[in-house]
Each structure stands twice: as C-alpha cells, then as structure tokens.
Write a structure and sequence with these properties.
Layout: E1 5-8, H1 13-24, E2 29-36, E3 39-47, E4 63-64, H2 70-83, H3 109-113, H4 134-143, H5 160-173, H6 177-189, E5 222-223, E6 238-239, H7 240-244, H8 246-250, E7 259-260, H9 262-273, E8 277-278, E9 281-282, H10 286-290, E10 297-300, E11 307-310, E12 315-317, E13 320-324, E14 330-334, E15 339-345, H11 354-366
Antiparallel strand pairs: 1-3, 2-3, 2-15, 4-7, 5-6, 8-9, 10-11, 12-13, 13-14, 14-15
Helix pairs in contact: 1-11, 2-5, 4-5
C-alpha cells in the first residue's frame, strides 16, 4: 500500500486507507483532510509533485484546485452579506452601475452566486489571454445581455462567476476579492490557500503542476471552461497547460485559480461547517452560514445538462453542500455534523470518484 504521511485520528483511519488506495491506483500526488468541530482529525498527503515521480508531494505542496475555488469566492460574499455590506437580494447594479444595461437591471446578487444570472459564458467567447485582464473581462460582462430571464433557469457560470462576484466585492470593499480573502479569511484562519500566486511570495516553489489525464492527446486537455467536468459548451477553450502557466498563476481568475491543498481547503470551509467560528475565529453568524444551503434553484443545468441543486455559492448535496474542480478536487461541508472534508490532487482524470471515496470514508468514521 502506498505510503501516506501526516496525522489521522484512529477513528478516521478509513480516510487514510482511501487515500493510500487512490495513490496505489491512478493518483500521482494527493492530499485529504477532515475537520470536525473546527479541528483537523485527518491531515494526510502522499505521492509526487511531478509525473516522473521524482519530487515528493510535501506537507506544504499546493496546486490549482480549479472550480473548488468557487467555495472560497462564495464564502467571501457570504461574510460580506453577514456584515451587512452586501445585500444578496439587491440588483447587481446597486454596486456596479455600469452593469444595468442590455436587460440586466433585474439581475440580483443572489443570481450570480446561484448560476441563474443568465451570463454563463462570455458572448462572444474570449481567448485565455483576455482572462488575465480583469478590467477588460468585467467590462465585457457589464455590456453583455443575459441568455434567459434572471432567476428562471440555471447554467453553470464556470468562468464568469468569479469575475461577476469579484467585481461586486471590489466595488464594495475597494479591494480585489483575492486581497479580501487573504486578509479577512485566510490570514485569520492561518490557512495556506491563495486566490492568486504573486511573484516573490514563495508559492511557485511549492506549486505542483496539474497533470492532464493519461489518455489526453499531446499530454494536454482542453475544457470549455474549467470545472465543467469536460463538457464542451463553446466557451473559452482553456487547457491544462494554461492553468500551469505563470500568466495564469499571476492573474485573478476566481472561478478556477485557487491554490492550496486539502488541509487549507478544509480549514477555510470548516468555518462554514461550524456555524461561522472555527479555532477561536468567528467570521460570520450561524444564520449567515445557513445561506450557503438555502436552495435557489433545482432542475436541469442549461450548460452541464444534468440535474443540480444550487444554494448561494455552493452546490447542495444533502446532507452536505460544497463543490468540486475540474479533474477531481472536492470539498464537502456538513453544517449539521460540523464537518468539512477535502480532497486535492495533481493528476486529473476525466471521470472518477476519488474525492467521493474520501468523503464517504469520513462519513463512515462518523457512523
């Protein structure tokens, strides 16, 4: 059985076994973490940072978790709402006046978080390089018309959601969402999660490049866009190699450019699991946490083509809420069990249940 490093309560040994089995199978490098009552009961990692398996995955290795990042964006918005700085039922144009054109006057903030705003993709599609220009990307979205009446349908806003929510946060706080997250969430919690990787911050040295699936042509993989589990929808054609590039790491593409490991993902989301307070740090109220799983839409997603349930920034998967990223990363948050479970890896697979195996192992431990 593959060697797994870290600490794990005996009660949660099934999580260690699940990670070891995954490393024996398709994983190259990976981490798994479980936090209960705000404290780590499993903090595990193993494998390698590179495809040749020469560089060990270390305790502080980080990688791109793609759309699992959306839970960090959502938590930032929920905190601002809990403080009274953001009204989730207000028109987006209250905070972003230029947005009130092309029929978007009725788009509410909650529509952005629940993928029901009708702006699932850039129309017309943009090049990857255009995503590196925050002002240019948000200006395009402000001018764009919706595809459906806001709030009536859902379609996964895989790339656009981060720009939409991020611009609202910027207008309210005067900070980029990445800066707000770093100062008001990651730093107080001591969580090693980042929404951008600035030069000289010491993060590049710890970064494990994402690995395309073994059967990917030319050793790369294209998705339109990231986080949609590979469903081509005519959106921006993003490749795995784009996500590994320095340009991507320096930009803020908040729907799919979050960097961390299972420990840091679970550490952040444990605040939500524990009613807004974890490890002595309170970031929002219990009522504010409940908004995450307040159902906004139930039905078929117009982009993904499958049935979904969306809360405010989180998918609803009773009894938990959470989300996953392109290729396999995942976080699940159970507010009733006060548990957060995360799985982060570098080897992408087109379809697999590695993260779900970690989640089910954690639930088995809870009994």
């Amino acid at each position: 059985m593959a060697e797994v490093h870290g600490a794990c309560d005996k009660r949660f040994d099934a999580v260690r076994v699940a990670l070891a089995e995954s490393l024996d199978d398709a994983d190259v490098g990976a981490s798994a973490a479980v936090f209960v009552d705000g404290e780590p009961v499993a903090d595990l990692w193993g494998g390698y940072k590179d495809a040749k398996k020469t560089e060990p995955w270390e305790q502080d290795t980080i990688t791109n978790v793609w759309s699992t990042t959306k839970t960090m964006v959502a938590l930032s918005a929920l905190i601002l709402a809990d403080r009274g700085d953001l009204d989730l039922d207000a028109p987006v144009a209250r905070y972003w006046p230029e947005f009130a054109v092309a029929g978007k006057e009725q788009v509410l903030v909650r529509h952005l978080l629940s993928h029901t705003a009708g702006l699932p993709e850039f129309d017309p599609p943009v090049a990857v390089a255009d995503l590196y220009d925050w002002r240019g990307a948000t200006t395009r979205l402000a001018r764009q018309a919706t595809r459906w009446e806001p709030g009536t349908l859902a379609g996964y806003h895989s790339v656009t959601q981060g720009f939409l929510v991020g611009e609202v946060v910027r207008r309210i706080t005067g900070q980029s969402l990445a800066t707000f997250f770093a100062e008001h969430i990651a730093k107080p919690l001591g969580a090693d999660f980042h929404l951008t990787m600035p030069a000289g911050a010491g993060l590049d040295e710890r970064f494990a490049p994402v690995l395309a699936p073994p059967d990917a042509p030319d050793g790369d993989l294209v998705a339109a866009p990231p986080g949609d589990q590979g469903a081509a929808t005519g959106g921006t054609a993003i490749r795995v190699s784009d996500g590994n590039s320095v340009a991507w790491r320096r930009a803020e593409i908040l729907s799919g450019s979050g960097y961390g490991n299972a420990r840091s993902v679970a550490a952040v989301q444990s605040v939500l699991a524990c009613g807004g307070e974890a490890r002595g740090i309170r970031l929002l109220s219990p009522e504010g946490c409940e908004r995450a799983r307040a159902e906004q839409y139930r039905g078929v997603d117009q982009i993904l083509g499958r049935s979904v349930r969306y809360g405010l920034g989180y998918g609803i998967f009773d009894p938990a809420c959470g989300w996953g990223g392109w290729g396999g990363s995942m976080v699940m948050v159970d507010l009733d069990a006060r548990m957060a479970v995360a799985y982060v890896m570098n080897q992408m697979l087109p379809s697999d249940y590695r993260g779900l195996g970690i989640v089910l192992a954690a639930y088995d431990a809870l009994g």
